[in-house]
Amino acid sequence: MGRPRGFDETEVVRAAAALFARQAYDGVSVDDLVAHLGVHRNSLYKTFGSKRGLYMAALRWHVDNELLPLVTAVGEAPDLPGAVRRALAVRDGGSPLDLLLMAAAERAPVDAEVAAQVARALNALEETLATRLPGASPAPGLAPALASALLGLRLRARTTQPDPGTAPPEPHTAPPGPGTTPSRTGTAPSEPGTAPPGTSNAESGTGTAFPGFVDAEQAAVVLANYFNSTNTDISR
Known about the structure:
By secondary structure, the protein is an all-alpha fold. Helices cover about 55% and strands about 0% of the residues.
């Protein structure tokens, strides 16, 4: 009878998923895993076989325990803006979309097993988004397009994070003086998914250096309404 493992395998897989989500597969070395997870190198190899073996365990855990519960929450939203808000929610500085995003961009094109997990997650997200679309007959291909837009918005948020300790700019409410350029920060919307009366989303400032959920909600609704009204097949 072998000796019991000196670590919690589920906790190690969970922590590895978080590390791969932050730094991607190629950005994490075996030394990083040993240091971050607190597991001896020999134990890591004995349990998972390789760095890729641990990555695959982490990706499957991520899909089952983070991504699919997120999809369920998205499906329980009352409408499309609420679904988008839930999909892009950030907790503890990260999103359940992060590892999926990294896997889709980095590993899926070169690893069939990763591609299968990415497809499983995306199919679930697209099927759920299809139930939140406005209109009796949404345009063909709209749900996959919105799923892709959500991943793009999350990628944008990851690359435009403000410096720690920096607060978003205060909304500008005073009218501009003579010869001045109107502020693009605008007045903060009073209700989620709406911009101030008489202003566009760009004018309200929600799409500048501090992207917010109002941005994404409005973009999703505009896309859905446009393609539905023209019955455009975006899958082509």
